[in-house]
Amino acid sequence: MREHEVYSNLRVPPSSRIVLRLDGRGFHRLTAKAGFRRPYDDVFRDIMVSACLEIMNEFSPSFIYTFSDEINVLLDSVPFSGRVEKLDSVFPAFASSSFTIGAVSRGLSLDKPVSFDCRVIPLGREVVWEYFRSRQDEAWRNCLNSYAYWTLRDEMDRDDAARTLNGMKSDSLHELLFERGLNISEVPAWQRRGIGVYRAPVKVRGYNPLTERVVSAVRMRVKVDMELPLFTEGFFEGLQGFKEHNGSESA
Fold first, then answer.
1. How far apart are CA 21 and CA 132, in angstroms?
2. How many structural domains are present in the chain?
3. Domain limits at 76?
């Protein structure tokens, strides 16, 4: 019966850097049902980070960037021989399961299954940082708009808040919030710039029984960075696994 299977042999370009962008499906409803605080909730943030850590441990990408319900995965070696249908199915399924496990471990009861979708984005090495800077810009817009909306919701209903904000530019949103006692530049960095998960050098101390001396060494450890800088090309040049591109792996 294999002749009835719809099968695609589409593969990612072997010379490209590959980003997978995972987006939560219907997460506005999910966050409302679960009672998460608006516009940002530390528990939701921690669940998203736990899903990123599971992806890091399973697939060892160069970098993961998350904000809101979005996860961007910069692959070092591309698994499944670069087959797009596998990337588009395994990664969102893995993220969905990881999010669910993270939620349950924190005592949350989800009323329906969680799902992510996925798109595969091949990029030239020289524009990787521009892609992530564009997503960081989106994180900032999301932060500004979310704070403006939920601040107005303290004063008016949903429709009036939407009408008030319709067409407002960034400067006007800043002014609106400042008049209500909020300086948006002072909210936590992870809300404004998102969160990075990547391997970074850490100095560790140990004991050498032969010399009977305390010694130090540098080890790579997974870091959850909630104080990200504005992305530059130099930031990505410093990532482990970014300088060398290993191509695709087998399934």
1. 11
2. 1
3. 2-125+189-237
What does the DSSP 8-state code read for residue 236? H
Outline where 37-115 has alpha helix (H).
Answer: 42-59, 84-105
Reported as a single tens digit per residue, the pLDDT across 69-90 is: 999 999 989 999 999 999 999 9
Task: Tell whether 174 is covered by a domain.
Answer: no
Q: What is the pLDDT of residue 244?
A: 59
Q: Which of 45, 53, 78, 85 is nearest to 194 (CA)?
A: 45
- Report in angstroms the alpha-carbon separations of 219 from 112, 149, 198, 203, 240: 41, 44, 13, 6, 12
CB 18 within 8 A of CB 78: yes
Side-chain half-sphere CA neighbours of 44 within 13 A: 23
pLDDT of amino acid 240? 75
Q: In this structure, what CATH number is given to the domain that contains residue 211?
A: 3.30.70.3000
Q: How far apart are CA 48 and CA 184, in angstroms?
A: 23
Cα 73 from Cα 168, distance rounded (Å): 32
Low-confidence ranges of the chain (pLDDT < 50): none
> What pLDDT, on the 0 to 100 scale, is given for residue 3?
67
pTM of the model: 0.91
